[in-house]
Fold this sequence. Notes:
heterotrimer, A: 180 residues, Rossmann fold, 5-stranded parallel β-sheet, two-stranded antiparallel sheet, 21% strand, B: 548 residues, alpha/beta, Glutaredoxin, Ubiquitin-like (UB roll), 5-stranded mixed β-sheet, 22 helices, 14% strand, globular
Amino acid sequence: xxGAPKITLATAWLDGCSGCHMSFLDLxxxxxxxxxxxxxxxxxxxxxxxxxxxxxxxxxxxSVSTEEDLHKARMFRERCKFLISLGDCAVSGxxxxxxxxxxxxxxxxxxxxxxxQAQPQRPSESLPTLLDTAxxxxxxxxxxxxxQGCPPPADAIWFVLTELLAGRTPDPTQVTRFGA
Amino acid sequence: MNLxxxxxxxxxxxxxxxxxxxxxxxxMAASCQSSGAGGVLKGLKxxxxxxxxxxxxxxxxxCMGLCSAGPLVRVSSADDTPDRLYQHVQEKDAKELFAxxxxxxxxxxxxxxxxxxxxxxxxxVLENSGEIDPEQIDDYIAAGGYEPLVRAVTEMAxxxxxxxxxxxxxxxxxxxxxxxxxxxxxVARSPEPDKYVICNADEGDPGAFMDRAVLESDPxxxxxxxxxxxxxxxxxxxxxxxxxxxxxxVERLEKAIKQATKRGLLGHHICDTPFSFEVEIRxxxxxxxxxxxxxxxxxxxxxxGQPNPRPPYPADEGLWGCPTLINNVETLANIxxxxxxxxxxxxxxxxxxxxxxxxxxxxxRITHTGLIEVPMGITLREIIEEIGGGIPEGRKFKAVQTGGxxxxxxxxxHLDMPVxxxxxxxxxxxxxxxxxxxMDETSSMVEVAxxxxxFCMTESCGKCVPCRAGTAQMYELLDKIATSxxxxxxxxxxxxxxxxxxxxxxxxxxxxxxxxxLSTLRxxxxxxxxxxxxxxxxxxxxxxxxxx
Amino acid sequence: MARHPATPAAAPKVRVVTLKIDGxxxxxxxDETILNAANDNGIRIPTLCYLEGLSEWGACRxxxxxxxxxxxxxxxxxxxxxxxxxxTTNSDRLQRYRRTILELLFAERNHICSVCVSNGHxxxxxxxRACGMDxxxxxxxxxxxxxxxxHDLFRIDQNxxxxxxxxxxxxDEIEGAxxxxxxxxxxxxxxxxxxxxxxxxSTSCTGCSKCVQVCPTGALVKKGTAAGxxxxxxxxxxxxxxxxxxx
Lengths: 180, 548, 247
């Protein structure tokens, strides 16, 4: 494969627990093999601060729960040629969406007042505005591939990436499922 | 009661009517009653009873049709003076109207009977509507009622009744348009000893009131139709499943059943023959889905009103597992006339594929709203522009909705289409049970679709997934589009849901719930398009995925 | 209304008919359903409300199949075979419809697998995978439904209920208690115990747990189970019906 131009890859986590990124890191020694074919241009695990336009593959973990998430999701869609929803939060809303049946005020009170160990108060600054409901990525922007799992096993992520690198469109339901 | 006795009753009643100098008829159907007809009738009756000559007959009758002009009063005379129709009559007008019998017409309240609304109709089902007192069996008998039944049970074999109905080409008036003769034959052929006849009076389409009007105006006609059906198929018991929201119709039906049973025209050994037929009324509790035959049967059995997969069809396995004939009110109300005049006569009315007439409830943005009966094959334009008097306030016609929540909206270019089962279906609507709602240029077709979807969503019984969850989702999508927050992707999803709900739902409610959406999309797609908010990031991604 | 039992008792003089399912020539008794005939021949048709040993319900619509000559789709669980019938069980169109039905179910109530006691042992979850339903296009409805933990041993979480009514049927047809029923309509429908009294106060419930064992999702569960721990033991049902049928 040497000589062939490397594929550019970007990842981000929105409203999620970072477990999907952990699962990605669980690729372990396969990360080295991946690094030969892929350049990670933007991710919580690299230093770049700007997502370059024309990135080949974008991977989003987590649901869209805040204005910032929405902004990031739209940016990924605009700047990535192929967008993957990674994990149940991204695909279905999952745990972050369990707040959706409650009133936002009640959610804030529960999180910052009822459950506070010290200084029970509503945060007023420097937090992104919560959306009324947490939604899957594809309800905010179009998504090309859905990889379920909470988190998707490293093997599933490997399968998806290697299939894509081989120029095929993988069917992730063969290797993972909701709640896996 | 035998034929001779029946004819004596008819002759006496007619002689009594002819002895009166004038007859004043007050429409006492639900619509006119709600605008004060009760007081008018009371006033006229007390004037008649205190009148020295006692030669004016005042009676409450069924629906005269032109509901928008109610309360309606018609004054007719024994001589050949033409009838006078009065509109918007109030209690205070009673004296003046009563005096008009001798003093000449009250021009102030006059309503022309030359209107195409009256002259263009062809009345079979409604022939006694507005003529007879629905609470007097003798009035019905005097108009020739029950003679077909008495003749059938005393002079004909069940097969002859069946043959007449088959020959008539009558199709189910509840909406489906299934040939009545075929349905009857299936039930008749079954060797099972116990069979049932059910009259489906669970009319629930928004804006539809045909069955209510028939039951309120001429209840005996429906009972006679049921008895004839029972005789033809070999049933001994009948149920009328009627919604509880029709108290007046229920009251008149109850009276009619009592009167007919007393005269030996229902009950044990009708006309002293071995044929017995008992009718019971069952009240619906307000679920639209109970108009679906399997749900209706479940409801009569005391179960939750939910449909069951067909087959088995009720004609094979219906009420309590027995062969059951279910027909709609209007279908059954056609039977006495078919038996009286013959199947060939009926077939000669209407079109090749759709024989007879159809009752429509005209509503919406139209000058004359009310109840009409027209021969099949008449064009929508004739109904709307001539009979209905066109669109009021100089506005432009936009669409006509037929078939209620199961039907569709047809635009101007389809107005010259003949009204029959097959043409309407091919245009994306259905005949339905007879609701006809006219819309003008101010109506938003997206909102019309949303309205009907909301109706289906709230009336879905919840049994099958596509209808239960699908109508709720389609409603949300329509609401998004109607409030200009929907994207092209939402419209695409809506269309995909329409296909699945239509193809996969268990009963007619779900299978037809997408029709209002599909027909408005077919003819008014631009109205949807104007409301969409494009979002390039939500557009479905191009198929080629090579840029990895 | 008298419904057909799912497994018809042996009746005299039952004819055998031949039909085609997905191109295979198949012989079946004329009182069998398409679903039974397909199952007997190793052709799998997805089902959800159907359960061998209970009456047919025809509500989930997962088992819809195409029958040549019929403009309408038929549910394999409730349609009898017929001579010369040609059935297609897995066309692209049917697969698409089934995925949409699953999407509608997942969006209707809370079917978040990761935190569900039935995770890994759920029929809805496995069907989603088997049918390739990898994401839900329709908006999630986010409606909250009640949880009733009043019973000593069991819990009903309406948020996970798909209204298949297996609990209602097993309780009525097998246990004979008819504790369960359905109330409401449309998306507000829910299964109830004893005219909507708390389950723990039910005077008709025998505590047999049949409803729990036949529930395909995490709606009816044993108390004290954590995520993924609730495994259903549905094997009793075919056994019971067979033993009773033999009597």
